[in-house]
């Protein structure tokens, strides 16, 4: 298997940009990912692709058009970690946007495997649309949104193997995703 890791999307020339922009970086792949995937398959290998769908870079098209997708506490600077920030997956519109972006890639490129990464801890756990007495629900809503996103992808793309790698909420989240994958007759690899 050939797995194309970080850097294939948006305009990602460093770790400071493009998380949240799940479209092919034309400068790096002028013939598109479809061309690379066909070449890899032609060599008798499977083709895999890296995603980090839970995160966002401030230097991204997604942030420029939807700064409200960033999980943050109003009136405070958002907390960066590894030069990235957390998407508020507790908001359905955010999950739908990420799903549609990934779907566009999966519908145009023959992908056999997805490495789903999560390279930072969660911070700024707050949702501006919720009243103060419901702020304790934000993390739970985030996880439920993440489960829905994962389950929809696994269900809609049953021939793709999804690997959960470096997930922060590993114990509960990957177990739930494993159960989700098995429910659809899927295998799941867990990275340690």
Automatic annotation (TrEMBL):
GO biological process, one term: carbohydrate catabolic process
InterPro entries in UniProt: Aldolase_TIM, Alpha-glycosidase_related, GH, Glyco_hydro_36
The UniProt record lists the keyword Hydrolase: yes
GO molecular function: alpha-galactosidase activity
CDD domains linked: GH36
UniProt cross-references to Pfam families, sorted A to Z: Melibiase
Keywords recorded for this protein, A-Z: Glycosidase, Hydrolase
UniProt xrefs under PANTHER family: ALPHA-GALACTOSIDASE C-RELATED, GLYCOSIDASE FAMILY 31
Record protein name field: Alpha-galactosidase
Organism (species): Lactobacillus helveticus (Lactobacillus suntoryeus)
Classification lineage: Bacteria, Bacillati, Bacillota, Bacilli, Lactobacillales
């Amino acid at each position: 298997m050939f797995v194309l890791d970080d850097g294939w999307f948006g305009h990602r020339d460093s770790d400071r940009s493009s998380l949240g922009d799940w479209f092919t970086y034309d400068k790096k792949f002028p013939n598109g990912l479809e061309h690379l995937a066909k070449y890899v398959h032609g060599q008798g290998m499977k083709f895999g692709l890296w995603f980090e769908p839970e995160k966002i870079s401030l230097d991204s098209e997604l942030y420029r058009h939807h700064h409200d997708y960033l999980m943050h506490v109003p009136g405070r600077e958002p907390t960066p970690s590894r030069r990235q920030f957390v998407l508020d997956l507790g908001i359905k519109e955010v999950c739908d946007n990420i799903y549609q972006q990934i779907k566009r890639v999966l519908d145009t490129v023959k992908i056999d495997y997805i490495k789903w990464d999560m390279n930072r801890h969660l911070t700024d756990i707050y949702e501006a649309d919720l009243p103060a007495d419901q702020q304790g629900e934000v993390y739970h809503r985030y996880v439920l949104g993440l489960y829905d996103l994962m389950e929809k992808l696994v269900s809609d793309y049953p021939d793709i193997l999804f690997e959960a790698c470096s997930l922060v909420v590993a114990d509960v989240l990957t177990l739930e995703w494993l159960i989700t994958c098995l429910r659809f007759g899927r295998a799941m690899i867990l990275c340690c």
